[in-house]
């Protein structure tokens, strides 16, 4: 089978269209349900009226437009960022266990935010994204620096173990900064993961950043598909592999940093959603990238809804809700791919 036919064999266009439509519909339904449930139960009709005919004199409209809707839109954007970042990392590294949270990028972003709170506490949300981006870049440099020491790079399992070590180091540094500058309580609440407190001004910054990252990933999705089959094959098809890798890693840093700046270092969304979408649409990243964005959005919105409903009026950390599913899934992947340990 030649290279072109191999790529075509991994693509399921009809299934891909159906999956994207189903994911979009599921996301809309999840958003509607999430906005309507909570300490104050609201009907879907009330939600509709608040969005399309907002009346500031109605308390329900204030709750929906001032608190719940920006929160869930933030969850959707953050889930899309984490899901897409995970899909890109799995394609670039050809590692089924790759995910920003597992490889130290999210904890690097956490360290960046801790430094911002310590030294520039009056900074804007735009600065928070920049510091998160810088921290994620530190995690990436450490990870790929370690990988470059060994000829041929790390095996999938070894790179995850290296990521765990880097995560531990960066977490310790972040906690050290927090203790030194008395930020422990604020940082601990944020590190637990969650989108409570997301505001419209934050979304005005977050939405364009995530949108640019997603658009770039979609534009490079065909190149990522070719790259995922191996660097030699990609070069044989005339692809500039180094340039594509650099751009895609920058996209991962942008998406991871922006997601962490809103929701904290939530793990496993970037691991689970690409595997789920890949099982449905095949190995073509032209479908995997947008599918991971949609299903990542839906997963985090539903997780946030569950976090609010498990023990009302208190909130369970969203990161804990995701981990309940993510840890068993991670162990399942390790067992399924036991040959990677060799």
3D architecture notes:
- By secondary structure, the protein is an all-alpha fold.
- The chain has one domain: ABC transporter involved in vitamin B12 uptake, BtuC (Orthogonal Bundle).
- 77% of the residues lie in helices and 0% in strands.
- Helix 5 (105-119) packs parallel to helix 7.
- The longest helix has 35 residues, at 59-93.
- It is globular, with a radius of gyration of 20 Å.
- The two termini are 29 Å apart.
Name some characteristics of this structure.
single chain; 342 residues; mainly alpha; ABC transporter involved in vitamin B12 uptake, BtuC
So how many helices? 15
**CATH T-level fold name:** ABC transporter involved in vitamin B12 uptake, BtuC
Number of domains: 1
First-last Cα distance: 29 Å
CATH superfamily: ABC transporter involved in vitamin B12 uptake, BtuC
Low-confidence stretches: none
Query: What is the residue-mean pLDDT, rounded to a whole number?
Result: 85
The proportion of residues in beta strands is under 5%
Residues in helix, %? over 70%
């Amino acid at each position: 089978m030649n290279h072109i036919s191999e790529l075509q064999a991994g693509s399921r266009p009809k299934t891909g269209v159906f999956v994207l439509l189903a994911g979009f519909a599921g996301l809309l339904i999840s958003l509607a349900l999430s906005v309507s449930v909570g300490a104050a139960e609201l009907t879907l009709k009330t939600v509709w009226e608040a969005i399309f005919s907002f009346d500031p004199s109605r308390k329900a409209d204030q709750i929906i437009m001032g608190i719940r809707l920006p929160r869930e839109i933030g969850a959707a954007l953050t889930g899309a960022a984490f899901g897409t970042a995970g899909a890109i990392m799995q394609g670039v590294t050809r590692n089924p266990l790759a995910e920003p949270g597992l490889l130290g990028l999210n904890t690097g972003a956490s360290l960046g935010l801790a430094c911002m709170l310590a030294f520039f506490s009056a900074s804007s949300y735009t600065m928070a994204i920049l510091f998160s981006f810088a921290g994620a870049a530190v995690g990436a440099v450490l990870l790929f620096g370690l990988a470059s020491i060994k000829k041929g790079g790390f095996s999938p399992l070894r790179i995850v173990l290296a990521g765990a070590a880097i995560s531990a180091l960066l977490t310790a540094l972040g906690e050290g900064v927090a203790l030194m500058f008395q930020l422990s309580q604020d940082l601990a609440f944020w590190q637990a993961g969650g989108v409570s407190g997301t505001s419209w001004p934050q979304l005005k910054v977050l939405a364009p950043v995530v949108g640019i990252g997603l658009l770039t990933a979609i534009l490079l999705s065909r190149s990522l598909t070719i790259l995922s089959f191996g660097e030699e094959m990609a070069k044989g098809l005339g692809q500039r592999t180094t340039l594509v890798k650099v751009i895609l890693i920058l996209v991962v840093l942008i998406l991871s940093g922006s997601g962490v700046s809103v929701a904290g270092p939530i793990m496993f969304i970037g691991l689970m959603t690409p595997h789920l979408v890949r099982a449905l649409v095949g190995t073509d990243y032209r479908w995997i990238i947008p599918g991971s964005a949609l299903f990542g959005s839906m997963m985090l919105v539903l997780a946030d809804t569950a976090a609010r409903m498990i023990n009302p009026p208190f909130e369970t950390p969203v990161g804990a809700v995701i981990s309940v599913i993510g840890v068993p899934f991670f162990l399942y992947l390790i067992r399924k791919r036991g040959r990677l340990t060799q």
